[in-house]
Amino acid sequence: MAYKIIRERFDQYLQQLKKDYRLFAPVVLNGKGTFTDTDSIRYQEINSIGEICFDKKSNFSAKEVLLPITQTLFYFTEDNWSEPKVDDKKLLLFVRSCDIHAIRRLDDIYLRNGFKDPYYKVLREKVRFCLMECEQGFENCFCVSMKTNTVEEYDMLARPQGKFVYVTVKNSELDFFDGKAIEIEPKFPQKNMTEVKLPRRLNQDIAGSPMWQEYSARCIGCGRCNFVCPTCSCFSMQDIFYKDNANAGERRRVWASCMVDGFTDMAGGHQFRKSQGDRMRFRVMHKVYDYKKRFGYHMCVGCGRCDDACPEYISFSNCLDKLGKAEEADQ
Amino acid sequence: MSNIYLPFTSRIIKIIQHTDIDYTFFMEYRGAVKPGQFFEVSIPKYGEAPISVSDIGDNYVGLTIRRVGVVTNTIHEMKVGDSLFLRGPYGNGFDVELYKGKEIVIAAGGTGLAPVKAIIDYFTEHCGEAKSLTVMAGFKSSKDILFRDDFKKWEQACDVTLTIERVDDDGIPCRSGLITRYIPDIPFKNVDEAQVIVVGPPIMIKFTVAEFLKQGVREENLWVSYERKMCCGVGKCGHCKMDDTYICLEGPVFNYTKAKTLID
Known about the structure:
heterodimer, A: 331 residues, alpha/beta, 7-stranded mixed sheet, 4-stranded antiparallel sheet, globular, B: 264 residues, Elongation Factor Tu (Ef-tu), domain 3, Rossmann fold, 2 domains, 6-stranded antiparallel beta barrel, 7 helices
């Protein structure tokens, strides 16, 4: 059902929802950006629609909610374990089409790649999506090329317009609006400013290309491209103990990055992919080649956050485009 | 739903010291386990480390652990009766059935001998089940030799070539140089059918495999075990991934026809 309601009513609705849901949406954090006087847009808990940033792309994705940067796996005392408690509330995430597609990729790794991850599963089952529309997409977005510009799997849609909010509710569990139903079609971008000629016939032969070593000269291995990516899912495990009681502590997992030193280091000193060029090749091939071999579609969803975040202005979309065009020229 | 990250407690029932830095810990364990599989071994506050199984017995497994980091240093300070924390076994392991009735050659470099030790034990204890068994093990120096007592036992039941890179005389009969030098001497009866297992550091695997191929061993009869960083052991953390393959899930044991396609 779809409705046109005034903003105050929508905020009341959010308050009603908050009894059973935690609401997460992109919010502008004033002055928290990378550079002086810049803002950061990140997922936070919200209370009203006015807090949500609809007109800009978030710097980080909703991945932060399902797969926290640091997540406690269990607490330990001398010979006992205890798992962290999970809040009973469900989660309503305000997300764009590409980010819903990205969570499907996380589902593949955490639920369908061998064993099921219990921490991810328990949060994922509680998630409902509220679609945020993007009419044109933003700078560096290339969702149309990646075919993630449209989506069916959302539970509701919210489109603020002036004093009103247009709402579509597909999941009856979230539908307690009253009033006259109207018709709303979700708006999806049909063209982005950035278009990518995707490589169609990639194979391992490209691993030997000198092109990758260009990145060794530019990439500084900061890993920002991984951390802002809504589909990057790697982590490392850490044990910590409390300063005031060395017999108690916790085992955690924290986000990891294949672009950063130490990712492949083994005990005894062996390491693989030492150059940044090799790491770039590994990341690019994961996003648009080997993931598809395993799961049937590309991992990259074209959100362009890696391009937004790179301090060296390395463009992932440009790299894909270069591979695609080289392939075309070869034909 | 069971939590794959929660370890279980296992008591140390015996410790054997091989070198200054390599010990085997025999741990209580009831359950199925195959040679080449690994456990995530941990001590709270210090962390986890993937360790492959070197011995398999009734109600125990042997884990050969080299002291090379925070976790393993701490394990080395533990005594019989103390407990460690385990998760696993993970990985595919070696399928012993595959090698039955064949000429088998096992070539191991350094600590690479640990993951294949249980296969050597099996075929030396069940002599009739393989046409022949040749064990080649290379170490840097005589100080680094693992499983000295087992070598004496194996020599009774199969052909053993023990090599050390740097010749020093401490009374152990072994040859000098790398094991690749002695591969041409293997008296294969039917090289087309011979099954060869190669485990060791990446550079050793590369040259050893090349030498076996030169001798006419077929790619599909070559088996390697890859060691990679594995934090979770269950296909989530991504550290061990090569191409679309998760070493912890689909490996660490690979047929060479697959292994040769995996680029780091």
